[in-house]
From TrEMBL:
Transmembrane segments: none annotated. Pathway: Cofactor biosynthesis; NAD(+) biosynthesis; NAD(+) from deamido-NAD(+) (L-Gln route): step 1/1. This is Glutamine-dependent NAD(+) synthetase. Its EC number is 6.3.5.1. It catalyses: deamido-NAD(+) + L-glutamine + ATP + H2O = L-glutamate + AMP + diphosphate + NAD(+) + H(+). GO terms for molecular function: ATP binding; glutaminase activity; NAD+ synthase (glutamine-hydrolyzing) activity; NAD+ synthase activity. Deamido-NAD(+) binds at residues 405, 434, 542. One of its GO terms (biological process) is NAD+ biosynthetic process. The gene is nadE. Belongs to the NAD synthetase family. In the C-terminal section; belongs to the NAD synthetase family. It comes from Thermodesulfovibrio autotrophicus. L-glutamine binds at residues 116, 173, 179. GO terms for cellular component: cytoplasm.
Length: 571
């Protein structure tokens, strides 16, 4: 029986921490060797972390990655290691190193360089052009990188038609809600259409605004998922696959027999002999599996992963946030506790003359339920001083949004002062609906270092918070009308359409690139659509100054969204 034992190392590297990433890779190699793995696999750009962005312009960065690779080469003996790194030859490539017997057997260069959404790989890399197949003592496998397998022909089909029985795809594929299900369908289709095993290894962890969800897969030639890695967690999977299944499947269903003459294709021999096996060797650890997640669970896991890694990888000990008694700040506090633990989260309650009794009660109940520390600082005296000192300048003009924003900016100043004094990271609580239309105060409630729910619409906030709360968010927070409480009797709907309507307009405009007429054709009132689109356009200057936040949708208000501030296009 021809079987092959794989170790899939779903790790969470740190961008730029080449020494730390190398240490982790060597640790997992030792672990895989103890499991008698024959091929040990690491994600795309595992040595440097993904995405290094303009670090790639620095020759010393590329050189350190190369030095780390040769430390791996020295470690690898009678097994194969595949790991991603940037490689400089005639140009710079996003590459996978294939290492065996203390030798660098080959370097595969990524062919399809994504240049959309959060990706900007054409800025840094040259595309590869080779599609080699590797022979390991009678077993034929190939390697490609992330985007390469998203394309139905090159390189996967060519590699399979040239004899590859196993396609190993190393990835750093960022999460957004719904993407995994589509990706899973695509990968199972690739395996079935080509009659090969597909081993898809995805990175895990948070990097600035992106989150990698892991969920690596091993898929049989018939398109069956054999192994599924954990979601949003590091994982180590050892699995043995029956290579004769490829032969049996292809003889019965020869789908790639007519894909051309590939006799002259490049086949690189790996100079290792496989150990004789009469039967499959059981793993000491069962292959991982992960349940199907709801959208609410996916989003919550992504938010907690993104916040945890941003805080920990950047060396913050604690976070603080303003608590108002509303759904957004309550939800962000819950995310922070789940991500970091209650001892690392500090709530700051800053009531004013307009803060309701109910809001105060809800803040204190939330704090009790979460078990976090609370600081209370009234802003009333400071607000009164502002009004007094500005009275001559403002003369007898009536109060308006100016006075509302002063309150928000006082709160922003207090949060930043606390942050400076104690070294805590301020996490902001604004959602995607508010940021889209500018319903937020620049240098006020937008002040902070990380915008946790920046990419979550208000209607989604309610759904995900309800799923995650388990009684910790007070029930009244879900049912009372949302309000900034900056003037008597204020509610969000004084300024905005109902969130169900607003979010539908925003979704069609942001994610689906629809203009006024197209959105109206979905049954929405023209005057409302016009008002919302005008607000979106007018708020672009605010979004440019907002802190980065976690991407959970197909089009986030970060790298996905690049609009000119000076812009007269009406849409």
């Amino acid at each position: 029986m021809r079987s092959l034992r794989l170790a899939v190392c779903q790790i969470n590297p740190i961008v730029g921490d080449i020494e730390g990433n190398l240490e982790k890779i060597l640790f997992y190699i030792d672990k895989a060797v103890a499991e008698k793995a024959e091929i040990i696999i690491f994600p795309e750009l595992a040595i440097t972390g993904y995405n290094p962005e303009d670090l790639l312009f620095y020759p010393t960065f590329i050189k350190k990655a190369e030095e780390a690779l040769y430390e791996i080469v020295k470690k690898v003996k009678d097994f194969i290691v595949i790991a991603g790194l940037p490689v400089k030859k005639d140009d710079l490539y996003n590459s996978a190193a294939i290492v065996a017997d203390q030798n660098l057997i080959d370097i595969y260069h990524k062919i399809y360089l994504p240049n959309y959404s959060v990706f900007d790989e054409m800025r840094y890399f040259k595309p590869g052009s080779r599609t080699p197949v590797y022979e390991y003592d009678g077993v034929f496998f190939s390697v490609n990188i992330c985007e390469d397998i998203f394309h139905p022909s090159l390189p996967g089909l060519i590699q399979a038609a040239a004899g590859a029985e196993l396609i190993i795809n190393i990835s750093a594929s960022p999460f957004y809600a719904g993407k995994y299900q589509r990706k899973m369908r695509m990968l199972t289709t690739r395996a079935y259409d080509m009659g090969v095993y597909v081993c898809y290894l995805n990175m895990v962890g948070g990097q600035d605004e992106t989150v990698f969800d892991g969920r690596s897969l091993i898929i049989s030639p018939s398109g069956e998922i054999l192994v599924r890695g954990k979601a949003f967690e590091e994982d180590f999977i050892v699995a043995e696959i029956d290579m004769e299944e490829v032969t049996r499947t292809r003889l019965r269903e020869p789908k790639i027999r007519w894909e051309g003459d590939f006799e002259g294709g490049e086949v690189i021999k790996v100079p290792l002999k496989r150990k004789a096996k009469n039967k499959l060797i059981p793993s000491s650890e069962k292959p991982s599996s992960d349940h199907e997640m709801t959208e609410e669970e996916e989003i919550f896991k992504a938010l907690t992963t993104g916040l945890r890694d941003y805080v920990n990888k950047n060396g913050f000990k604690r976070v603080c946030l303003g608590l108002s008694g509303g759904i957004d700040s309550s939800f962000v506090a819950l995310i922070a506790v789940e991500a970091l633990g209650r001892d690392r989260v500090i709530g700051v309650f800053m009531p004013s003359r307009y803060t309701s009794k109910e809001s105060r009660e809800d803040v204190y109940e939330l704090v009790k339920n979460l078990g976090i520390e609370l600081i209370e600082i009234s802003i009333d005296e400071l607000f009164e001083e502002y009004l007094k000192f500005l009275s001559d300048t403002f003369k007898d003009l009536p109060q308006d949004v100016t006075e509302e924003n002063i309150q928000s900016r006082i709160r922003g100043n207090i949060l930043m002062a606390v942050s400076n004094k104690f070294g805590w990271l301020v996490i902001t609580t604004g959602n995607k609906s508010e940021l889209s239309v500018g319903y937020a105060t620049l240098y006020g409630d937008m002040a902070g270092g990380y915008a946790v729910i920046k990419d979550v619409y208000k209607t989604q906030v309610y759904k995900v918070a309800r799923w995650a709360s388990r009684g910790r968010i007070p029930e009244r927070v879900f049912t009372k009308p949302p309000s900034a409480e900056l003037k008597p009797g204020q509610t969000d709907q004084d300024t905005l359409p109902p969130y169900e309507v607003l979010d539908k307009i925003l979704y069609l405009h942001i994610e689906k690139c629809m203009g006024e007429q197209e959105i109206v054709e979905y049954g929405l009132e023209r005057s409302t659509v016009q008002k919302v689109l005008k607000m979106v356009k007018k708020a672009e200057f605010k979004r440019r100054q907002a802190p980065l936040g976690i991407k959970v949708s197909s089009v986030s208000l970060g790298k996905d969204w690049r609009f000119p501030i000076t812009n007269r296009f009406g849409g």
